[in-house]
Amino acid sequence: MVTEMTKYNFILLSGDVEEFLKKLQGVGVVDITRSTKPVDEKSETLSSKAGNYRKALTLLKKVTPAEFADKTYGDLAETVINTVNEREMMENQLTQLHRDLAERLPWGQFDVKNFKKLEEQGLKLHFYKVKASAMDPAWAENYALSEISNDGTWSYFVVVSDDENYEFPLKELPAPDSDCTAIEKKINDLEYEIEKNYRLMSELKCHENDLQRELDKTMSKLDLHLARISGTKAAEDYITVLEGFVPTEKEAEMTALLESEEVLYLVDKAKVEDNPPIKLKNNSYVSMFEMLTDMYGRPKYNEFDPTVFISIFFMLFFAFCMGDAGYGLVLIIASLAMKKMLGDIAKIGLVLGIATTVIGFLFHTFFSMDMLSWSILPEAVKKCMLPSQIAGYDGTMVLAIVVGVVHLSLAMIIKTYQATKVNGFANSLGTWGWTLLIVGGVIVGAFALVGVLESSVATWIIIILGILSALGIFFLNNLHRNPLINFGAGLWDTYQMVTGLLGDVLSYLRLYALGLAGAKLGEAFNAIGTQALGDGGANWIWFILIIVVGHALNIVMCVLGAFVHPLRLNFLEFFKNSGYEGTGRKYNPLKIKTLNY
After folding, report:
1. Domain tally for the chain?
2. Which of 341, 491, 522, 587 is deepest in the core (most CB within 10 A)?
């Protein structure tokens, strides 16, 4: 849910602004309305400095610390970045030297000075390389030819000539400028320098906390500077007015500070037009999925928080796309194993793994094997699983469509609630009309299918709903407009709704399609592994290798699809039909970071 905000306007002498902002930073609850990007030279410098610290910290996270490192350095961030850049440059040079060495090895050891001595005597060396099978014995008879090496594939040879009009039926190679011994020495020297570079990075790793501390200080300075220059000047710059927002639940802390400072301020309840920052308040489970909400955008101040719906349906859709209890167990084990490394992402992975295991059991699939065919499972357990066919169609396909209809119906109910809340009931009759028609029709149809309502009763209810909906859609969609314009707008909305809603419902078939694709690919690996095993079971090593590698690849591909497509169904189909805009800005209080280093 969206936390309620209180708006403050602080009126200060311009000379007192920075000191007052430092005190607000100490409290850490006030979001001063300010830019999130550099706006002048000082903020640009601080932002660049913070960027260097972040980059250096990212590089150090990949390094193993040294046991002893008591050296001091100048600018830590620059030292780390320059050290890594130097190593990358040396590693590129090392790669090129290895290529050069491979080219020089066939020519053996030699002294380039001897080439010049021969040239002074009028003799020139010509270097050639040819396929060993294409080497012509007649060349040795007609030219002063000496084969240097032959590896069975290529022949390397030299021709000595004093003829200015010398010709040979092969393309001549450039003369090597050094032998392999010189290049090997360069490689050894460079490898030693790279090793020194690694040792230096290992020592710098011990200063990771110092870098984090400097990053926090820099970000606090940047935040303070942006807040200071965001104020509105008045009375020939003698007075500065600052605007800030505080969560209403934190008003007591703010009031205590303002009373002790005797600051002139105005306080009011935040309104939508004030564009207050958005702070989400959810339980521990739902809050894990706030990162997905932030990928699209936080709600406006008068919008609903979609995180609770994402936490349910993203999890459900992900499990649908995976659709395998065995793969769910793998996700659970992987999430537990990488808990320290991935943090909050591992928690989401654990939840998704559990959901995948449950849905996979419901779909009776375990590593692409059909559990309904297992004789060891009791019939009572098999009855809890989804039947393979529902009304003559694939059970998972029918369930995907049903879940999609429920998801879209919920979106339309939310849209109707939001429209009524913001615009009032009288100005939301068009939205009410569509919700009554579609959601009401879905509910009545469901009751009729399960036999709760007789078909004749259901027909009359649908007719009544249709009449009421038509009034809202075609005639009462805007009470302040000409009825003819309303009717035309209703026709246009009908066209968009019919074409758009059908496509939206069919989009949920991707849940079935992705699950089916993963299952079929897994079945293919199982079949290949079984064939490799053979009748006698002698090739069990190949069997294990194919099964493990095959299913590992399949899990990776399934996870990728199971992340992207459920996100799309929430961000596109659900948000569009619920009217969600997600243009709010994140709550970012002015505060000093106090992490444990």
Report:
1. 3
2. 522
